[in-house]
Amino acid sequence: MIAPGDPGFREAAVGRVFNARKPSRTPAGVVFPETEAEVVDAVRLARTRGRQVSIRSGGHSWAAWSVRDGALLIDLGGMRELTFDADTGIATASPAVKGGVELTPFLAEHGRMFPGGHCETVGLGGFLLQGGQGWNSRRWGWGCENVVGIDVVTADGELVHANEAQHADLFWAARGSGPGFFGVVTRFHLRTHPAEPMFHDTRVFALDDLEPLLHWLHDVLPQLGVAVEPVVAATRVGRPETVLLLHTTFTGDQDPLLDTVPCRALEHFHGPTTIAEENVAMTLQNPEGYRYAADSQWTDADAATLYPLLRDLYAELPTEHSFSIWYGWAPARRLPDMAFSLERNVYLATYAIWSDAAADERHRDWVHGHHARLAEVGDGVYLGDSDFSRRPDAFMAEPNRARLEEIRARRDPDGLFVSYEMGR
Ligand SMILES: Cc1cc2nc3c(=O)[nH]c(=O)nc-3n(C[C@H](O)[C@H](O)[C@H](O)COP(=O)(O)OP(=O)(O)OC[C@H]3O[C@@H](n4cnc5c(N)ncnc54)[C@H](O)[C@@H]3O)c2cc1C
């Protein structure tokens, strides 16, 4: 264990946090297990010493959920298993495996795909536990819907396998509780899909076209195929005072409905693509080494309600890299019974991205201020793009949240694992 005062402690505590705005919180110590037996030892050590446990897989949580005052931080970065069973189509992956950089090329060798995160370096652990909004997720479902089992070290320090049939309560909780999960997942068992051809289309519009664009999108969204991911992105990378209409499809071609857009595109790029190529663009939009603040909102509000709020937000992007998205989610089916339970017609998310530490509070105020206004016309947030140290909000349906806390009370009665309260 690396403890406060030991050489390299600060690096061990926050070095693998993606966000360059590192938290000032101080863990009681950091351990880097390389085997499941070492994870068991770490959980038992925390219990013996009267410490809580926090966990890190890929380190991509914007709010650095893994770094908690006084907790023993179990950093799973050293565990790197990836397997694939051609007979069942099931892959297994360690939680620190990166969805894009590692899982995607590994599955491509087998002609398979998985709905991993849109940014290639996101770790599977946090991504899958919180839901997992991945490639082709409108059709293949949330990442967590494609988890068929987990290996998990419980608060008792036991390694168990959980799925629909055994330890089903843990399995239910693991699919959506995110940073509130009460166990250490050491392995995910994943349903993979046959590889599909992918198509990309980007149209650039003047920001002044946002109003007709949004009205049209809200009108066509119910008819768009579920293999289409339609996104409006406001970004200053590229032409100023513009918005992009991006869509990827997993049908090998574009959806003809997209050609009915009523505004004139200033530029239009389209053609076949791959997850690897799309990841390159996403990495440019989410550069490493910058300070980030993120917030989100689910909403069923109509275009007329959203337009003035989004126009203000899009016109004010504070830095070159900052961006904001309108994502046409339009759920086409009921979610299975699991902790993850909050989604709406449209997903909104905003990311302030900057490098000057002196501007931290200004940019945080900007993101969370805009999203507080969006929250007045929305119904909660997605854990993946949330920071409860600034703006707590609902992230599960009420009955699911109640059930989660009831399972926690049985599985982790002493509160060994940290939960959603994290301080600043
Ligand atoms: C550049 C970038 C792009 C992103 N793009 C997407 C996207 O396209 N779709 C999307 O859904 N999200 C996206 N996110 C959000 C991201 O998925 C979440 O922040 C997620 O938590 C990251 O997982 P991680 O393992 O890397 O994070 P970590 O910070 O390591 O983990 C976050 C928390 O999850 C819990 N946790 C992680 N691993 C385990 C485990 N093995 N056992 C128990 N608990 C665990 C812990 O509470 C931990 O503190 C993006 C984030 C970034 C930085």
UniProtKB/TrEMBL annotation:
Keyword Flavoprotein carried by entry: yes
GO molecular function: FAD binding; oxidoreductase activity
Keywords: FAD, Flavoprotein, Oxidoreductase
SUPFAM superfamilies reported in the protein's UniProt record: FAD-binding/transporter-associated domain-like
PROSITE patterns per UniProt: FAD_PCMH, OX2_COVAL_FAD
Family statement drawn from the similarity comment of this UniProt entry: Belongs to the oxygen-dependent FAD-linked oxidoreductase family.
Protein name stated in the entry: FAD-binding oxidoreductase
Protein source organism: Solirubrobacter ginsenosidimutans
